[in-house]
Write a sequence for this structure.
């Protein structure tokens, strides 16, 4: 029997921890706590005090990214130790750092530094201007583009999750107004994200280039398996490719739908979402194909 | 325009009840037509979308999501019973759903 061809996918960052998948994965929480402790010593002492209920830092954009990264890294490390190994790693948005850790290209601290420097570079670039992001489901791409054009909104479509599911980034007021208008136009779901940085927005280019300079001395090794670009679905196999991708990822639009299709065409039949959310697995219900998209909870049950 | 029979109604009800029981991890016996999707089941609009996809495939429906969205803005759904009624209207009228408002 041929082995199941699989990919590990890494979510951007959690909006809540109500599910925290991986509960039953043997050794997961011990590993996660070890990583929290290590990260607490290296980047932010408050990380060592994290817990899911009282000190979950969900209101803190940067700490939430650290925690999602640590959670994802702990999960993929446990899976690999159980000999569950993917052919590809793919990081959704800021999940790219966990994908690089998973593929063995960076160590835990380097990923934390990437997150820190990216956040600081982009925050510095946007200054005091209020930006935001949002998601909307139910409209065509053309409908959204028309809404943006009609009101001259400073917004861009920055990701496509499924045929009728999109992410937008731009000025906060424009995003809020556009989401309301989208509802009137027939969007079945429209909500903003609790972020202040409009990730993947083209106007972040300067900040992204500053980020590129700040990571010049951080080591990136060749990955043990290809990491897939969400920008153009290329297989990233060299440190140079990965370094460029880390920068481009901050100010280029992504396409998750194309990425999942590309992986399906490559013969991938199992996707494992390695992270604290189940968002990508839920999104997969709107993408057709002969595959299984499972969360860490399902891994416990089926392996 | 599809004709809604008693058996369609039964089938839709069965699918909706089973769907929410599984998605929200509650016993099916705890769900009735007056159950609030958000307050009682902690449901969300993504579940509504998923159900639409299920019915689109099952009944081979020709309907755009934005048509349903526009209808839902004027006729918000709060309970399981209201959701079943809307699904039946979608099956019956497909892309002509919005014409119901013009007629009424």
């Amino acid at each position: 029997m041929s082995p199941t061809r699989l990919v590990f996918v890494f979510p951007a960052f959690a909006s809540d921890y109500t599910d925290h998948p991986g509960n039953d994965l043997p050794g997961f929480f011990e590993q996660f706590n070890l990583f929290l402790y290590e990260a607490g010593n290296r980047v932010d002492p408050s990380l060592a005090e994290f817990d899911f209920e009282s000190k979950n830092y969900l209101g803190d954009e940067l700490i939430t990214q650290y925690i999602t990264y640590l959670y994802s890294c702990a999960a993929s490390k446990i899976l690999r130790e159980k000999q569950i190994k993917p052919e590809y790693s793919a990081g959704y948005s800021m999940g790219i750092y966990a994908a690089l850790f998973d593929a063995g290209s960076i160590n835990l601290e380097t990923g934390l530094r990437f997150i820190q420097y990216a956040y600081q570079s982009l925050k510095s670039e946007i200054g005091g201007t209020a930006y935001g992001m949002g998601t909307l489901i139910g409209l065509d791409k053309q409908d959204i583009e028309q809404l943006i054009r009609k009101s001259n909104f400073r917004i861009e479509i920055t990701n496509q999750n499924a045929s009728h599911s999109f992410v937008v980034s731009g000025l906060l007021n424009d995003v809020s107004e556009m989401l309301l208008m989208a509802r009137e136009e027939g969007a079945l779901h429209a909500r903003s994200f609790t972020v202040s940085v409009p990730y993947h927005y083209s106007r972040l280019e300067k900040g992204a280039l500053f980020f590129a300079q700040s990571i010049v001395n951080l080591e990136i090794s060749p990955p043990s398996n290809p990491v897939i670009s969400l920008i153009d679905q290329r297989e990233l196999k060299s440190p140079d490719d990965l370094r460029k991708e880390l920068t481009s990822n901050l100010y280029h639009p992504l396409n998750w739908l194309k990425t999942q299709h590309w992986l399906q065409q490559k013969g991938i039949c199992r996707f494992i979402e390695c992270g604290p959310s189940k968002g990508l697995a839920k999104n997969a219900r709107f993408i057709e194909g002969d595959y299984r998209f499972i969360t860490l909870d399902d891994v416990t049950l089926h392996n | 325009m599809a004709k809604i029979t008693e058996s369609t109604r039964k089938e839709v009800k069965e699918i909706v009840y089973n769907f929410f029981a599984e998605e929200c991890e509650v016993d099916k016996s705890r769900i009735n037509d007056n159950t609030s999707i958000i307050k009682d089941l902690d449901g969300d609009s993504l579940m509504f979308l998923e159900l639409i996809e299920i019915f689109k495939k099952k009944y081979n429906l020709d309907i755009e999501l934005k048509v349903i969205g526009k209808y839902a803005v004027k006729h918000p759904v709060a309970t399981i019973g209201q959701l079943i009624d809307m699904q039946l209207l979608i099956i019956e009228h497909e892309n002509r759903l919005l014409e119901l408002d013009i007629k009424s």
